[in-house]
Write a structure and sequence with these properties.
Layout lengths: L14 H5 L11 H10 L13 H10 L4 H40 L1
């Protein structure tokens, strides 16, 4: 899933939103996550515009045997598929509602 909803039931329902706050960014999230953040989320800092210690962290992953490039490719494919599915669901919902609205206009 490419959204900022929490998948781990042990984690806070706003964990990823709080952890991924960054300037000039937009991140999709489920409505329930957005409402939870509005209710009890906090912004305690934000990601560094220069990536912070990301390069060091990725180097540590690689040292531990993680193929960072392959992991990135997998994540990109999964996120793209998730966004595509969400977009298709949105378009189908709009089309279905348009049909219903068109039918109600014909009755009026």
């Amino acid at each position: 899933m490419g959204q900022l909803g929490t998948k781990d039931p042990q984690a806070s329902d706003v964990h990823y939103v709080q952890a991924l706050v960054a300037p000039d960014t937009i991140g999709p999230m489920p409505e329930e996550t957005m409402l939870a953040f509005a209710q009890h989320g906090t912004v305690e800092g934000e990601l560094s515009g220069d990536g912070g210690d990301a390069e060091k962290t990725l180097a540590e992953f690689a040292k531990a045997g993680v193929d960072v490039d392959e992991l990135a490719a997998i994540l990109q494919r999964e996120v793209a598929a998730s966004f595509s599915a969400s977009w298709n669901n949105l378009m189908n919902s709009i089309a279905a509602k348009s049909v219903v609205l068109g039918q109600s206009e014909k009755r009026a």
